[in-house]
């Protein structure tokens, strides 16, 4: 009589289906836990990238862009505070941490825009060296 819960692997050994499912679930949960261990700086960078993507997206209406940027701004305020208070970042000499604090106005975009009394988009564009005047003097051409 053949056991319905057993299958043969490539080597001809009988393997319990349930055991394979459990091992797959354990492996998958380990991968999820590893991915969820991103630090505060990485989480803030990810959220900032999403906000900039929304700001530059040509597929969004003005209302959708305003809504998405408002939500991102609220999350960024919290994430920026978390990074600024994160004791584990102090004394770290990684390139990401060093550059984040060297470029304060780009890294901590919400705080910098409030301190400089500017819109988020204006703050970001100014830090990149793009002004209204430079945008108005540009023209489309071939390279």
Q: Would you kindly provide a written description of the structure presented here, covering whatever features stand out?
A:
The chain folds into 2 domains: 6-35; 40-136, no CATH class. The chain has helices at residues 17-35, 40-56, 62-85, 95-102, 104-107, 109-115, 120-127, 132-136; strands at residues 6-8, 14-16. Strand 1 (6-8) and strand 2 (14-16) form a beta hairpin. With 143 residues, the protein is mainly α. It has a two-stranded antiparallel sheet. Helix 2 packs antiparallel against helix 3. It starts with 5 loop residues before the first strand and ends in a 7-residue tail after the last helix. It is built from 8 helices and 2 strands; from the N terminus they run ββαααααααα.
């Amino acid at each position: 009589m053949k056991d319905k819960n057993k299958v043969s692997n490539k080597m001809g050994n009988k393997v319990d289906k349930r055991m394979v499912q459990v091992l797959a679930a354990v492996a998958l949960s380990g991968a999820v836990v590893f991915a969820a261990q991103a630090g505060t700086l990485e989480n803030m960078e990810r959220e900032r990238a999403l906000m900039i993507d929304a700001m530059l997206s040509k597929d969004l209406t003005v209302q959708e862009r305003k809504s998405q940027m408002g939500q991102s701004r609220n999350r960024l305020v919290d994430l920026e505070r978390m990074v600024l208070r994160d004791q584990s970042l102090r004394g770290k000499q990684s390139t990401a941490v060093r550059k984040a604090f060297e470029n304060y106005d780009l890294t901590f975009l919400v705080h910098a825009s409030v301190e400089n009394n500017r819109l988020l988009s204006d703050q970001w564009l100014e830090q990149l060296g793009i002004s209204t005047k430079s945008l108005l003097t540009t023209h489309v051409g071939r390279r």
